[in-house]
Amino acid sequence: MKKFLTNKLNILLVLLLTCIAILCGCKTNTPKNKNVEVGVWWWDNRIDSNTYLNFAKENFVTEIYYYTSSFNEKTSNFITLANSLNIKVFLLGGEKEFLTNPQLAHALVQKYLTYQQNNPQAKFCGIQFDIEPHQFSDFEENREKYLYDLINFANTFKLAYPQITFDYAIPFWLDDLITYNGTQKEAYKHLIDISNRVLVMSYRDTAEKIYDVGEDEVEYAKQTQKQLNLCVETGSEENIVTFYEEGKKVLYEQLEILKNKIPQNFGISIHDIKRWYNLKN
After folding, report:
1. Domain for residue 14, yes or no?
2. What is the dihedral of CA 114, 118, 124, 127, to 10 degrees?
3. Does any domain span residue 3?
4. pLDDT band (50, 70, 90) for residue 23
5. Cα separation of 52 and 239, whole Å?
6. Residue 10 covered by a domain
7. Does pLDDT of 281 surpass 50?
8. Do the domain assignments include residue 30?
9. The CATH number of the domain where 149 resides is what?
10. What tens digit of pLDDT does each residue of 146-193 get?
11. What is the 3-state secondary structure (H, E, C) of the chain?
12. Which of 100, 104, 144, 192 has its CA at a distance of 20 to 30 angstroms from the CA of residue 256?
């Protein structure tokens, strides 16, 4: 009898604490939905789709950049499940070698087109290229050439595949003046002009700093009526560029501030799903 009463009291205590938490608004450490696009990179397709997609849905993710080299039933099942949660899926390509050997990227696009044709009920929404020329060891010595190659890559693929939506992830510091097709302007302006949308890797650990480092790109995108996402990092990197040290609560607080700073048709993207999921509370 004593054990029964103890269990009953424990249940009542849990119910009471739950009610208090709801009344006090304690569930505040998830990002609120403010009708902005929230994207996330999904580099590892071996992780449990149900667990991470549910996490994405709970955190108001609206689009995923999904990396895969296998365009098979697993891919179509993933897209079907994501779409059932009102989450769009973009194919993610991120090899720096695309710049030195564009045929690798053309091969990927051909696989994409074949997949799209064979899976009309589970299509990608487009392709997001995360090509980072600064990963080349000789980038600083050949900076202008690599940035020119990136711009030329974007323009070439836009012309070759006009039916595909191409987005590009770019660092926030592409201020180099590059002459392309007879026009000289900052590299980021060329890429905004050419692409459907850019995702600015404005990796900092406060909303103010995130907006500050991406402000030039934001203003140019507004002028040219193009779409843009500002992006945040959650992995174990230098403290100034990531929310790894601060954790989820601070991340969500800063995302709410950022949502109120960006134009209404802009969005936010988070790198990446595994790191975000494992971020401390």
Report:
1. no
2. 0
3. no
4. very low
5. 25
6. no
7. yes
8. no
9. 3.20.20.80
10. 999 999 999 999 999 999 999 999 999 999 999 999 999 999 999 999
11. CHHHHHHHHHHHHHHHHHHHHHHCCCCCCCCCCCCCEEEEEECCCCCCHHHHHHHHHHCCCCEEEEECCCCCHHHHHHHHHHHHCCCEEEEEECCHHHCCCHHHHHHHHHHHHHHHHHCCCCCCCCEEECCCHHHCCCCCCCHHHHHHHHHHHHHHHHHHCCCCCEEEEEECCCCCEEEECCEEEEHHHHHHHHCCEEEEECCCCCHHHHHHHCHHHHHHHHHHCCEEEEEEECCCCCHHHCCCCCCHHHHHHHHHHHHHHCCCCCEEEEECHHHHHHCCC
12. 192
User: Torsion over CA of 203, 208, 212 and 217, rounded to 10 degrees?
Assistant: 70
Residue 59 is which amino acid? N
pLDDT tens-digit readout, 38-74: 999 999 999 999 999 999 999 999 999 999 999 999 9
Amino acid symbol at 56: A
Q: How many domains does the chain have?
A: 1
